[in-house]
Amino acid sequence: MTELQARGVVKAYGPTPALRGITLDVAEGEIVAVTGPSGCGKSTLLHCLAGILRPDAGQVTWRGERIDTWSEAARSKLRRTEFGVLFQFGQLVPELTAAENVALPLLLAGTGRRAGRTVAMTWLDRLGVADLADTRPGEMSGGQQQRCALARALVTEPRVLFADEPTGALDTLAGEQMLGHLVRLSREQRTSVVLVTHEPRIAGYADREVMLRDGAVDGTGLGVDVPSPGGPGRSSGGLGLLVGDAGAGSVPDGQR
Amino acid sequence: MLLGLLAQGSRHGYELKRAHDQRLPRARPLAFGQVYATLGRLQRDGLVAPAGQDRDGGPDRTTYALTGAGRDALDLWLAEVEPPLPYVTSTLFTKVLVALLVADAGRAREYLVAQRRAHTARLRELTAVKTDPSATLDDVVAADFAIAHLDADLRWLHTTLERVADWHREVHS
Ligand SMILES: Nc1ncnc2c1ncn2[C@@H]1O[C@H](COP(=O)(O)OP(=O)(O)OP(=O)(O)O)[C@@H](O)[C@H]1O
Ligand SMILES: [Mg+2]
């Protein structure tokens, strides 16, 4: 079943076009990586899908219902209940402890303090940071903060999780562990995930990869145009010499 | 590798093969012939010595143990720093540059798309191995090694594509 769908989504910031007609389906429980060179529109697409930004043209549908035309209040409620959002830096509230941060979305939805804390504790436990429940973000490592942020994004058991470079500020092992948790938990809950990343290693955790180039889906996965043949620009001095050195013997003469 | 396995205690040839294949599940399985040939060579060099026979007897059932010299050789091998591999001699490097610089653009695109697809498919496969709940530490460590190299290849490929595209934009503008 299709959980989330974009149809011809267009978005510009003033004169700068960021998305030039993106069409994309995310199935229930599917993990989709969105990749592409810096500035290609990954974050803008994520914001449009999550209802944070409104597209200039095109449609965004969630479970068959068009959400891009909804009011800000309605979209905001959707983000609090059915969607979870996770960014590169944890955006935890610095004055609150880990448990209070994680319980926050539940309190906003009307859950009582005590019940909220109980649920928050189970999520912190699942992410292996239960011992940090009463610690404030300022006293945690980046990896610990991201795990708390992930707990907070999942505490409402959202149907779709949007993650924009969630491992961007972490070292390799912390990033791997974080992604391991993210994938395991979303599989358990059949949560769909839209995962923006520029790292092939991280995109490897997804079921499927969608690459963008200049605000459009790039089916080649290369991210740029391959230079056209012939032309004076095709032999490039320095690089050509490198090929001559490294490739000696392994390149058939006919191809030189 | 065999010396390393023998350091854990004496074993016979078949056990060594099994231990090797279990430890390095993603590596090519060892051929029996290779195990016995290597043991023969190590014995000739005095690094291993026969340490007994299983009750069933037969030449295949000889148990080998590390000698003092073998342990020294293992220590020496571990102390030696591996030269950081000169990866610029890899065929991947050559092919991508030939594709970008001299090949017909259509063919170059075809090759690059297919190569990237193969790399990402393998990377996803290995990530699945690694995140499988039943994966052992050996599985994870071996998958990590392969993934790190595929990831580096892919990042280099994209950087190169962007650099060459940039270079063309400058030359042609
Ligand atoms: N708030 C904004 N105001 C004006 N232009 C913007 C704004 N946000 C993004 N842009 C522009 O829109 C385009 C797409 O930006 P976006 O942030 O979606 O790219 P990205 O793929 O997420 O890049 P990165 O990998 O660097 O995060 C870029 O050209 C960017 O400069
Ligand atoms: Mg971005």
In DSSP terms, counting alpha (H) and pi (I) runs of 4 or more, how many helices of chain A?
8
**3D shape of chain B:** elongated
Oligomer: heterodimer
CATH topology of the largest domain in chain A: Rossmann fold
Mean pLDDT of chain B: 82
Give the neighbour order of strands across the main sheet of chain A.
Answer: 6-7-8-3-9-10
Helix content of chain B: 55-70%
Shape of chain A: globular
Number of helices of chain B: 7
Give the total of beta strands of chain A. 10
Domain tally of chain A = 2
- Structural class of the helices, strands and pairings of chain B? mainly alpha
Distance between the termini of chain A: 51 Å
Low-pLDDT residue spans of chain B? none
Total DSSP E strands of chain B: 3
What is the CATH homology-level superfamily of the largest domain in chain A? P-loop containing nucleotide triphosphate hydrolases
The radius of gyration of chain B is: 23 Å
Largest sheet of chain A: 6 strands, mixed
Distance between the termini of chain B: 56 Å
Give the helices and strands of chain A as they follow along the chain.
EEEHEEHEHHHEHEHEEH
Rg of chain A, Cα atoms, Å: 22 Å
